[in-house]
Design brief:
With 68 residues, this protein is of the alpha+beta class. The protein has one domain. Helix content is 43%, strand content 13%. The protein is built from 2 helices and 2 strands. A two-stranded antiparallel sheet has the order 1-2. A hairpin with a 5-residue loop joins strand 1 and strand 2. It is elongated. The chain starts with 9 loop residues before the first strand and ends in a 6-residue tail after the last helix.
Length: 68
C-alpha cells in the first residue's frame, strides 16, 4: 500500500484552501509511471496461459539459462 506521508507531496490549493493539484519529487513521479507500465503489461497478458514454476525452471535449464 502506498503511504502518502512517505512521498513528500506538496499541494497546490485554491483561495478557499481546497487541494487542486499535487507536486511530487521527480523520482516518485517516475516510479509511479513505471508502476503504471507494469500494470498495463499485466492487464494485457491476463488471458495468457500459465505454467508451473518447475516447468519454467526446467525450460530455463534446457535453454542453458540456468545451471543444471
Amino acid at each position: 500500500m502506498v503511504n502518502l506521508d512517505d512521498m513528500q507531496l506538496e499541494y497546490v490549493t485554491d483561495n478557499a484552501g481546497a487541494k487542486r493539484a499535487v507536486i511530487l519529487p521527480i523520482e516518485v513521479f517516475y516510479q509511479l509511471l513505471e508502476d503504471l507500465e507494469d500494470l498495463a503489461v499485466v492487464a494485457e497478458r491476463v488471458d495468457e496461459p500459465t505454467i508451473s514454476h518447475q516447468t519454467l525452471v526446467d525450460e530455463l535449464k534446457s535453454d542453458g539459462l540456468l545451471p543444471d
